[in-house]
Automatic annotation (TrEMBL):
This is DUF1684 domain-containing protein. InterPro entries: DUF1684.
Length: 292
């Protein structure tokens, strides 16, 4: 198995392509109502709660009602082009799904993310005037280098395997179906990484840590997307495109941790480094087990 894919690479063009990709990635995650706009993490139960900076009181309803919001006179939300007023039940949400109804506070856009994570219902209000958005300085990275593109062989399981992983928030776990593993070699050593489904059909996603984690890169996790393997199972892991998950930037994320075995003993000196700034919680969060 060849460890790297450096043959006939135009290094200048490689760097330009990486820069274009990373600029687009930075723009996407700094969306005015994206993760950088989250102002809190709330574990929802039957007792109604109000969300600072957002309209309504929120609770878990009975049966199929799912999340219920009670909006006062003059308050409203919008979802899929429809205006919501008064009492509204959003219905039950499948695991890992979410809805994000929007609102306007004066001239400021906002939204409330309703999500199901690890069997618990969470609310995350977002506001486009969050200071972190304006102050975000960008994420430092290693200089892109083709040597960190490695050939990998995908070994599918007979059937996807439910794989439990931890989360960035204590008391929460996630379960993902793993379709198989990716095998690659680096400087004579052989490594295996459990892969999850990627964004596009056939694509894969790897959550991992390595010997740089907690030193130059974020301690808990990084992720890298992998193109769908060819007919013989071959693909490429480009560690230059290893990126931080939202939990590297905010205490209000519930990101999955890498599965057992995805903690590489080598230093992957490629991709994104530890962010320079972070949104931290100043209030104690209610533990999921208590709020359920």
């Amino acid at each position: 198995m060849t460890s790297t894919l450096n043959t006939d690479i135009d290094r200048a063009q490689f760097g330009r392509d990486w820069d274009t990709w990373h600029r687009a990635h930075e723009t996407h995650r700094a969306d005015p109502l994206g993760f950088f706009a989250i102002t809190g993490l709330h574990w929802l139960g039957s007792e109604p709660i109000a969300l600072p900076g957002a309209p309504g009181t929120w609770s878990l309803g009975l049966g199929a009602d799912g999340v219920v919001v009670e909006l006062a006179e003059g308050e409203s939300l919008t979802l899929d082009g429809a205006t919501i007023t008064g009492r509204h039940a959003f219905g039950e949400l499948p695991e890992r799904s979410s809805l994000t109804p929007g609102f306007t506070a004066g001239d400021v856009a906002g939204a409330v993310e309703i999500a199901q994570r690890g069997g618990h219902t969470i609310l995350r209000p977002r506001r486009a005037d969050h200071p972190f958005l304006a102050e975000y300085p960008g994420t430092p990275t290693y200089v892109p280098n083709p040597r960190w593109r490695v050939a990998a062989r995908f070994r599918p399981f007979d059937a996807p395997r439910p794989t439990e992983v931890g989360a960035a928030v204590d008391g929460l776990t996630h379960v993902y179906d793993a379709p198989g593993v990716l095998e690659f070699s680096w400087r004579g050593d052989h490594f295996t990484l459990t892969a999850f489904d990627g964004k596009a059909p056939g694509d894969l996603l790897v959550l991992f840590t390595d010997a740089t984690s907690g030193l130059t890169t974020y301690a808990a996790n990084r992720s890298v997307g992998v193109d769908a393997p060819d007919a013989d199972g071959w693909t490429t892991i480009d560690f230059n495109r290893a990126v931080n998950l939202p939990c590297a930037y905010t205490d209000f994320a519930t990101c999955p941790l890498p599965p057992e075995g995805n903690r590489l003993p080598i230093g992957i000196e490629a991709g994104e480094k530890t962010p320079l700034t972070r949104v931290r919680s100043t209030d104690a969060l209610v533990a999921p087990a208590v709020a359920a």
